[in-house]
Amino acid sequence: MKNYKKAALATMVLAAMPLLAATSNTAIKVTTFADENGENNNACSLREALKTAADRRSYGGCTVVDITSVSTKVIQLEAGTYSLDKELAPEVNVSILGKTPADWTRKSIIINDYPAQTNLETIITAKNATRLFNTTVGNRFLGLTHIILKDGNTSDRGGAIYAGADVNLLNTQILNSQAAKEGGAIFMAGPFASLTINHSLIQGNQAPKASVIAMSCFNDNVYSKRKIDIATSSLIGNGSNASSSMLEFCGEPDVNLSTNTIAKNIASLTNGSIIKFTGDTKAGTETNNTSSILSDASILTLNSNTIVENTANTSFLYDKMGLKALSFNLLAYNIGTNACRYLLGPAADEKAVGVGLVYNALALVGANKCDVPTASLPTDHTNIDVSGINDVRTLLSPLQTASEATAFLPIYYPKNNNTNNDLVNVGLSGAECSANDQRGIFRNTTNTLYFDPTANNTCDIGAVELMKLAAADKADISNKSLKLELTDPYKMQFDRFDALVKNPDDPNLIASDKEQLALYKNLVENTKTNLHYRAIYINLKKNVIPASQAVSLLPQEIEQDGEHRLKFYSKDSYTVTAEPLGRGQINDSVTNIDTGDKENLVCEWNADLEQIIFYRKDDVITQAGDKVFCKYTIQLNSDPTIKSSGLIQAAFVNIAPEAKNTSLTFKYQKHEKKVLNLLDFANDEGDTGEGGAGPVNKPNKPKFWKNADGVELPIRLIDVPETNLVITADRQGACPEPDQEETCYGGNIYVQEKNTFNPFNFNFKYKVYDADGLASNEATVNTISTATTTDDTRNASGGSGGGSINMFGLFGLFGLLAYRRFKK
Question: Fewer Cβ neighbours under 10 Å: the N or C end of the chain?
């Protein structure tokens, strides 16, 4: 099962500054809400910041921070309202950032991680007197993040933005803007101007044509080519009865509308449309005929959108021009003649219209019918006909007011009525629907749930996925080194967060750091008291080392008083149990597991660690092709009927022992013999953990290899410089298979230089074998002559003098520059 994970979108919205690769690292900081233009050197306005960025020199109260000619300039705004007296016309690529809407003292109730998302607090208003942005002067990129644009007004096109080049909106709102001609919110004027909108709200905008987005169709009699992506956004309450459309596409666009809520918008009931994708004239089979405003090479993709409760003659108007691919959309319950309409008349008998329909919810007959060619709806089509469901409330909640639970966007929640016409869990998973729902929640999984296949979360139709508890199956895991991959990393993370809590370096991360400190403190203490031989520790929490040993739970979505909450795992909210099943091989069922080995297995839930511990009572390793199996069940405490079971498939392996480097120092000209116990520098703690015992049935199992006669001979020497060193041992004999032709040693190792006057250093390597004959890594023993250290009589003052710096000094300097944070 894929991991439940926070979406990249959510990460960007809450915490990141989404800049281009060539974006400046330093922002021009705006310090006044007034629309000043050079008259006050004590404050920096947004208009002055744009001029400073373009001229690459200080202006007004703004200080230049980036004088390069190629980078995208960054302007940082604070919370508050910036009022414009006239439109802003950037002449340089610019990314304008509002205050990040985040509360770092709380976790997000959507992603269960810091920070919590909050309302947008940065507003740019034109007070209904002017357009807000015009980028056609310099044809430059405009990026807006965490900003509300409101009350734009123009007697021409593009009430909020008149775009000559690419526009990127992230977590931005365009509210109540108007254009007298077209493009109430945005008009794409440039021949290649593209538009990307993510996690944004477009609401209350108006124009006679295209109340939200319009565009130029031609430039120099050539179709305008542009990419338009609108994702995880809400387009709500735009337009009027006098408007002909909301989104109107022409030229040669490649349009992708994915995971959006498009609702309560208005266009003319006589001839208006919400989404218009037609060539208007000669919209037949002629390719690229320029009498059509839409090229036949155009593409429209609608995936996982909720398009309901709009008022217009047609919600989706199309003809034969271009390709139209619709999947996992709810396109119904709109007021008007048709949900879908073919421009030139009834669609049933039309051929080569270019409409593809899979897994949509549509009314195929009756009121607000989606009129499409019969060829697009073969007898085995996968679309759901909702003609017989008269009330949209049967399938959807009322439109939810924007709140933290909805990621601050108006959305609908699907309802699970456990019928074939539900929008929930239509049976497809993987990449067919959008990867995340509109809230940023990972939608679905692809793996089989062995114990309850029907509990698998598959694609829901529409913009929002209704989550239900699913205990992930975990395949192909094995025990890791208890020391190197468990207890040592736990201690390292504890030390790291302990230092950060005592000496905070970022006030935003204090709450998160304290939580991580408590987490790793618990793991350090309780892992030490719950060490088991070759055990597998399986956690149910994300971001815990080692990540490869975690199972991920899809949370249960709880509805209470009309509001939805995700119930993430916590030991207070859920009860977990586990039991061993046996060993063997399975394909698509768990019925053929051999239970004969069950008595040697332990699989149990440890409430202190909040982990499943899976181990054997003996030291038998799992043979190739076999697995050992454990079943775990998680149950919601507030409703015990909500539970899910997962299957753990594991293999127990022998972890190689660890050998460490060491050294011996010989006094120059003293002919010393050194005694070395190499087992002091080796361990088998990958199997046992530090201070741990052997398996339950053999707790005193030796750490290192003994031959058939019980003689301990676990040390093998490699690359010994025999012309320079004499090495002997207390005992020696054959190594274990498959290295039985080699000599192994036991007890003390004795090392002596052959040449008393040797002024050089040497080294040799060694490895050790554990009790089962598995070899460690190769480690090195360095022999150091004091002729190269304290007894070195060479002139130390020769060379480059006391002002030089060696490579280790450089490393030290570089270390001072290193930022203490790294990826968890």
Answer: C
The CA distance from 162 to 298, in Å, is: 22
How confident is the model over 345-355, as pLDDT tens digits?
A: 999 999 999 99
Tokens for 302, please give them. Answer: 């609608």
Nearest to 174 by CA among 184, 187, 163: 184
Q: Which residues pair with 60 in a beta bridge?
A: none
CB neighbours of 288 closer than 8 A, spacing ≥ 6?
223, 295, 296, 297
Model confidence at 443, pLDDT cuts 50, 70, 90, reads confident
Residue-wise pLDDT tens digits, 132-171: 999 998 899 999 999 999 999 999 999 999 999 999 999 9
Single-letter residue type at 630: C
Task: Specify the pairing of strand 658-659 against strand 682-683.
Answer: antiparallel
Phi, psi of 76 (to 5 degrees): -105, 125
Q: Which amino acid is at 464?
A: V
Whether 133 contacts 91, CB under 8 Å: no
Distance of CA 106 to the CA centre of its chain: 20
Average pLDDT, the chain: 89
Cβ atoms of residues 632 and 648 within 8 Å: yes
- Rounded CA gap, 39 and 44, in Å? 10
Cα–Cα dist 305/260, whole Å: 5
User: In whole angstroms, what is the distance from residue 184 CA to residue 204 CA?
Assistant: 9
Structure tokens at 400: 């939810």
What are the backbone dihedrals phi and psi of residue 72, each rounded to the nearest 5 degrees, phi first?
-75, 125
Spatial distance between the Cα atoms of 280 and 278, rounded to a whole number of angstroms: 5
Whole-Å CA distances, 530 to 469, 534, 655: 29, 12, 18
| 188 CB-side CA count, 13 A | 32
The span from the CA of 777 to the CA of 754, in Å, is: 28
Q: Is 771 in contact with 686 (CB distance < 8 Å)? A: no
Pairing of strands 355-358, 369-370: unpaired
pTM: 0.86
Q: Identify any residues that bridge with 234 across adjacent strands, giving them in sequence order.
A: 201, 261
- Estimate to the nearest angstrom the gap between the alpha carbon of 301 and the chain centroid: 24
CA 643 to each of CA 470, 494, 553, 633: distance values in angstroms, whole numbers, following the listed order: 8, 33, 11, 7
Q: What is the pLDDT of residues 93-133, one digit of tens each?
A: 999 999 999 999 999 999 999 999 999 999 999 999 999 99
Neighbours of 599 (CB within 10 A): 10
The burial class, CB within 10 Å (0-12 / 13-18 / 19+), for 132 is buried
User: Phi/psi of residue 210, each to 5°?
Assistant: 60, 80
User: How large is the C-alpha radius of gyration of the chain?
Assistant: 34
CB–CB of 89/137 below 8 Å? yes
User: β-pairing, 245-248 with 222-223?
Assistant: unpaired
First vs last C-alpha separation in the chain: 22
Q: Which amino acid is at 326?
A: L
Q: Identity (one letter) of the amino acid at 98?
A: G
The 3-state secondary structure of 695-744, one letter per residue: CCCCCCCCCECECCCCCECCEEEECCCCCCEEEEEEEEEECCCCCCCCEE
Distance, CA of 434 to chain centre? 14
Nearest to 108 by CA among 555, 517, 644, 471: 555
Residues of the chain with CATH 2.60.40: 658-788
Structure tokens at 87: 């439109």
Pairing of strands 536-539, 611-616: antiparallel
The C-alpha atoms of residue 122 and residue 147 are separated, in whole angstroms, by 5
- Cα 779 to the chain's mean position, in Å? 39
**CATH, domain range 658-788:** 2.60.40
Task: Return the closest-CA partner of residue 425 out of 453, 385, 391.
Answer: 453
